[in-house]
Amino acid sequence: xxxxxxxxxxxESLLAAGAVLLHELDRPRTPTELWEAIRGDxxxxxxxxVLAAEMLYATGVVSFHDGLLEKRSV
Length: 74
What we know:
- Strands 1-2 form a two-stranded antiparallel sheet.
- 43% of the residues lie in helices and 11% in strands.
- The chain has a single domain, classed as Arc Repressor Mutant, subunit A (Orthogonal Bundle), CATH 1.10.10.
- It has three helices and two strands.
- Helix 1 packs across helix 3 (46-58).
- By secondary structure, it is an alpha+beta fold.
């Protein structure tokens, strides 16, 4: 489910959903703003949106401060 496999296509993987989220995080956004921006762009449900956001947060790719999601600088 996180990575594409024989039975999970690339478009259905959380890795692809995370890429969509990162593409839209050109500036810090609230989760609601981000959901409104990406709804329908390969992320069909709010559950998948939350899972992708959690994956990015758990891996340290994004941070959450003062109600805003933003890309972490390397």
